[in-house]
Amino acid sequence: MAQNKAEILVGAVVLCVAVGFLAYANSSVGAVRSTSSEYNLTASFRSVEGIAVGTDIRLAGVKVGTVTGLDLNPETFKADAELSLNKDVVLPDDSAIIISSEGLLGGNYVEVLPGGSPFNYEPGAEVVDTQGAVSLISLLMKFVSGSE
After folding, report:
1. Is residue 18 predicted with pLDDT exceeding 60?
2. Where are the domains of the chain?
3. Separation CA 96–CA 128 (nearest Å)
4. Which DSSP string do the residues of the chain spell out, in sequence order?
5. Residue ranges of the alpha helices (H) in 34-122?
6. Which of 11, 40, 79, 113 has CB atoms 3.0–4.6 Å from 96's, for a disulfide?
7. What range(s) does the Mce/MlaD domain occupy (predicted)?
8. Residue partners of 30: CB distance under 8 A and separation at least 6
9. What pLDDT shows up at residue 36?
C-alpha cells in the first residue's frame, strides 16, 4: 500500500511538471506568433545565398526581426525578401539592408544600416538600398586567378 502511494505521488509530480511545461510553451509560442508587435518591409537582392526563412535581422548586432519570406521575382530575376521587424525599431527611409556573414565558418544574417533621413519606412514599404550576399568562393577564385 505504501508503494502505491509513492507511485501516485511521483505520477502527480510528473503530471504537474508536464502541465507547467505545456503552459509555458503555449505562452512562449503565443508571444512569438503575435504580429501586433511587428511590421513588414520588403527588399530585393541580387543574391540571398545563405539566407532562409527565419534568419535573424540585426541592427548594431542586436536581433530586431526575422526573414519571413523569400521568393524569386520572375520579372527582375532578383530574390524578393519579406522582412518582419519589431514595431519599436523605426527605420529611416534611406536605411540599407545588406546580407552579412558572421565569419569565415559562420552563417549569414540580414544587417540593417540605419540612414539619417527624418522620414521613416511605413509598414509594407520596399527597401531599395540593398546589397546581396558576397560569395566567399567567388572571392577566393578571383584571388587565385589574379583577376580583378
Report:
1. yes
2. 1-34, 38-142
3. 8
4. -HHHHHHHHHHHHHHHHHHHHHHHHHHHHHHHH--TTEEEEEEEES--TT--TT-EEEETTEEEEEEEEEEEETTTTEEEEEEEEETT-PPBTT-EEEEEESSSSS-EEEEEE----SSBPPTT-EE--EE-PPPHHHHHHHHHHT--
5. none
6. 113
7. 38-115
8. none
9. 64
How do residues 28-74 score in pLDDT, each as one tens digit? 665 555 446 999 999 999 988 888 999 999 999 999 999 999 999 99
DSSP 8-state symbol, 22: H
Cα angle, residue 123 at apex, residues 112 and 39 outer, rounded to 5°: 70
Mean pLDDT rounded to a whole number for the chain? 84
Q: Report the run of H or E that residue 30 belongs to, with start and end.
A: helix 2-33
Question: At a CB cut-off of 8 Å and minimum separation 6, what does 140 contact?
Answer: none
Q: Measured in Å, how far apart are the chain's first and last C-alpha atoms?
A: 84
- Residues 27-39 have pLDDT tens digits of 666 555 544 699 9
Residue with cell 580583378: 148
Q: Which residues of 112-141 are buried (b: 16+ CB within 10 A; e: fewer)?
A: beeeeeeeebeeeeebeebebbeeeeeeee
Q: Which amino acid is at 103?
A: G
